[in-house]
Design a protein that fits this description.
The structure is a single chain. The protein is α/β, with parallel strands linked by helices and 370 residues long. 40% of the residues lie in helices and 18% in strands. α2 links the parallel β4 and β5. α2 packs parallel to α3, α7 packs across α8 and α9 packs parallel to α10.
Length: 370
């Protein structure tokens, strides 16, 4: 029987992963059986070393595992030598057009180069970049998007679409393969989630390079997160994708929260607590929304990957969230504190129930409160 990751009959709780070759980005493995890695990109001026280092530290605290910086000129490339020793996660240099910047970034300590071989220069220049990457043990991400597709492919396929994205990515990867360079990651980004899904599905059948997933120019936090969740969630559920970035016009913390939210929703990775709560209905007899907000505030103190449920119905609540580590369910003047679906304690006072849940969560997180 052919495995269908979306069928109930074949679902085991663990999503399958496309088998890819593995590359190392600094100390972070990408591809094969490695966990899907979370990336983001600085919006600071790379030449401003203190600001860039500060933002990378903030990104790391929010769950970023690979950071990328723009390298538009020599000064930005030189700054990598000062940035890299001050951070704990791998640093990717984003290069366009000037092959010499790729050489300089590699020599100054970048852990990976993001280029498009088609716009970096002629074959002799690409060969120098490849030789430098080999000397420093650096992988290269071939990043194509709707703005970088070659004119002949636009003409061939009638514009920007999944077919032109895929052929552009494979064409540029082949340039590196001809130079016997195979530590390659591919990305094929579109601002249209449906096109991104189609492009990544197609390229995943044509090569075994690890894939970096993203919807480019996704937009503001709310709509951009939704677009990204649709595209990245669909692909990851099919086993496609080795690293991800959610590209938002907003704070980096929002990008990273969305990345981890997608991975956690699919059960691929867990970071910090997860809150599940019912949407409410006519049976609700408590102020559910305020209770959810109060529990969510408590969870901001928690680092452990706990699953917490807040339900407003004692009829269905415990059964609907029986896999939660801890839960609180209210109705008809009674609040139930549960652990793994089993009732631990009953309360008639909301504040007492909430205090008991807070105490249980902090203790589960390795802390004790008086």
């Amino acid at each position: 029987m052919t495995f269908d990751p979306l069928s109930a009959e074949s679902f085991s709780g663990v999503l399958p992963r496309r088998k890819t070759r593995q590359v190392m980005i600094g100390g972070v493995p990408v591809g094969r059986d490695a966990p899907v890695a979370v990336q983001s990109m600085c919006d600071t001026d790379t030449r401003d070393v203190p600001a860039t280092v500060k933002q990378i530290h903030e990104m790391e605290s929010a769950g970023c595992e690979i950071a990328r910086v723009a390298v538009p000129d020599v000064e930005a490339a030189e700054a990598i030598a000062q940035i890299r020793p001050q951070i704990n996660i791998p640093l990717v240099a984003d290069i366009h057009f000037d092959w010499r910047l790729a050489l300089l970034a590699a020599k100054k300590g970048a852990d990976k180069l993001r280029i498009n071989p088609g716009n970096i220069g002629g074959k002799s220049k690409i060969a120098e970049v490849v030789a430098c990457a080999k000397d420093h043990g650096l992988p290269i991400r071939v990043g194509v998007n709707q703005g970088s597709i070659e004119k002949d492919l636009l003409d061939k396929y009638g514009g920007n679409n999944p077919d032109s994205l895929v052929e552009s990515a494979l064409r540029n990867a082949e340039i590196l393969a001809e130079l016997d360079f195979h530590d390659v990651v591919l990305s094929l980004k579109s601002s249209n989630p449906a096109e991104a899904i189609a492009a990544y599905r197609s390229v995943s059948q044509k090569c075994d390079y690890p894939l970096h997933l993203g919807v480019t120019e996704a937009g503001p936090v709310k709509t951009g997160s939704l677009k990204s969740a649709v595209a990245l969630g669909t692909l990851l559920a099919e086993g496609i994708g080795d690293t991800i970035r959610v590209s938002l016009t907003g704070p980096k913390s929002e990008e990273l929260e969305a990345c981890w939210g997608i991975l956690q929703a699919l059960g691929l990775r867990r970071r910090g607590p997860e809150l599940v709560s019912c949407p409410s209905c006519g049976r609700i007899e408590i102020d559910l929304m305020s209770l959810v907000e109060e529990v969510q505030s408590t969870l901001r103190q928690i680092k452990s990957p706990l699953k917490v449920a807040v339900m407003g119905c004692v009829v269905n609540g415990p059964g609907e969230a029986r896999d939660a580590d801890w839960g609180i369910f209210g109705g008809k003047g009674v609040y139930l504190l549960t652990r793994k679906g089993e009732i631990v304690e009953r309360f008639t006072d909301r504040e007492a129930a909430k205090a008991a849940l807070t105490r249980a969560l902090l203790e589960a997180d390795g802390r004790v409160i008086s």
